[in-house]
Model the fold of this input.
Amino acid sequence: VYRDLRQPIGTLGDASRTQEVIERYASMVEMEMEPFHYGSHYSSAGVVLYYLIRLEPFTSFAILLQGGKFDHADRMFDSIAQTWTGCMKSTSDVKEMIPEFYYLPEALVNNNAVPLGATQGGRQLDDVVLPPWAEDSPVRFVQIMREALESDYVSATLDEWVDLVFGYKQRGLAAEEAVNVFHPLTYEGNVDFEKLTDEVERRSVISQIDNFG
Done:
């Protein structure tokens, strides 16, 4: 029922996935590159827009991020199960949930009739598809999520997750041992902007940090 809060999201699921990111890290060390396990981040502006695309002002910002149009429907937030599966299988998808899952059922409903498009399979995106236990009720989904967050299990292990996200396992040897190292641009102070003399490169780095760092 519960995920293992002692591990970063990128090491959950198939063991081969964890092995893949560890090997990539080791390969980067050998090539004398600044190593990381994950090229994306567990939380960013892009992640927030992904989850909240059905609500303004996030709808407008999501369109802006994609250059004036919506992303392809197959890549948009459509289903809780589909999103969870992606986070369990893909080494490039390590996003965490956002606070709104625990208090804002409106984020799961397309009350604004946002034209999200159709998948390649022909299904029109609308409200978020919920797990069977939610009984098609966003309110029930949020209620159960909150109950899970306040459970004894989470209370007993949440400090482990805090260490990964906010604490000593964010950087350095502890992060490496926990398989919790992210792309260098996601860390504060890692970029010396004074050395970025090429304007195109500078804008590219700033855009990546703003939206995905």
